[in-house]
Amino acid sequence: MKFGLIDHKEYLFEELKDLKTRVRYINAAWETGDFKYFLKALKNVADALGGMKKLSKETQLARESLYTMLSEKGNPTLSSLEKVLHAFGVKIVFERELSHGKKSA
């Protein structure tokens, strides 16, 4: 009996086409606190949604800049990051940290 195996990336990319899954995936990557991991997650989303060429057209950012921005050494500006997230159907939201401002005994 032969089992059909699905490539991990193929499965991930298919799942990331769903907006709710994409939002959870990006949030989970952000919450790790590892910015390189977060950028890798954004690159995965970009690849899942059609690649850098398509993202470049949607964001009006140069394809080469997107590759650099979403690499391990990437250091995107907030405005570039916001454009990319907008193209993914995601927005940045700021919340109060629960532990911030609590007085210690």
Question: How is this structure best described in words?
Answer:
The chain has 105 residues and is mainly α. It has one domain (8-87). Helix content is 57%, strand content 0%. It has 6 helices and no strands. It has helices at residues 8-15, 19-31, 35-48, 52-59, 63-69, 78-87. It starts with 7 loop residues before the first helix and ends in an 18-residue tail after the last helix.
Radius of gyration (CA) equals 16 Å
Helix and strand composition category: mainly alpha
Number of helices: 6
Q: What is the global morphology?
A: globular
Low-confidence stretches: none
What is the strand tally? 0
Order of helices and strands: HHHHHH
Nearest-integer average pLDDT: 92
How many domains is the backbone divided into?
Answer: 1
**Percent range of helical residues:** 55-70%
Report, as a whole number of angstroms, the end-to-end distance.
Answer: 64 Å
Taken as a percent bin, the fraction of beta residues is: under 5%
Largest sheet: none
Question: Which features characterize this protein?
Answer:
6 helices; 105 residues; globular; mainly alpha
